[in-house]
Design brief:
- This protein is an all-alpha fold and 168 residues long.
- The N terminus is likely disordered.
- The chain has 9 helices and no strands.
């Protein structure tokens, strides 16, 4: 039974009902409908912290989905899971793949910046200030791109950029 039919969360149930109605009235192929079902089930599993199940659903959605825009969100969510699992190299890869398909995802750029910032902090902890600066510079580049796409967001990043004189 698909996850969307067994989930007990009220909001998820409402989302599933609305999504099912939309799938019936919007002209889509059976593959697109199936891809969306896997994507929806992946989001549900992800929200519950069941990352293995979420990844399984996302990979299946990727196999079926052909629209680059829709694929970008699947890839972004895969990146989120890898971030949550501490697999930062994989996360960066999936965020970059998402941005290749949809360059207007400031949240992917922000997450990439956060990972780079974190790696900079780790480098400081190891006493490698040169490597730290390289990571911080990369974080700054990603945050500048995210802020350019979404100027009202990422206030803490904007403050950090100003404080470190990386905001041009």
């Amino acid at each position: 039974m698909p996850r969307s039919r067994i989930n007990g969360n009220f909001i998820d149930k409402v989302f599933s009902i609305v999504a099912n109605i939309l799938l019936r009235i919007i002209p889509t192929t059976s593959e697109e409908k199936e891809a969306f079902t896997y994507y929806r089930d992946g989001m549900s599993a992800q929200s519950e912290g069941n990352y293995a199940e979420a990844l399984k659903n996302y990979y299946e959605a990727m196999r079926l989905e052909i629209d680059p825009y829709d694929r970008s969100y699947i890839l972004y969510n895969i990146g989120l899971i890898h971030t949550n699992n501490g697999e930062h190299t994989k996360a960066l890869k999936y965020y970059a793949l998402a941005l290749d398909r949809n360059p207007f995802l400031p949240q992917a750029l922000n997450n990439m910046a956060v990972i780079c910032y974190y790696r900079g902090e780790e480098a400081i902890g190891l006493g490698d200030s040169e490597m730290a600066e390289a990571w911080f510079d990369q974080a700054a580049q990603y945050w500048k791109q995210a802020i350019a796409l979404s100027p009202g967001n990422y206030i803490r990043a904007q403050n950090w950029l100003r404080m470190t004189r990386r905001f041009e």
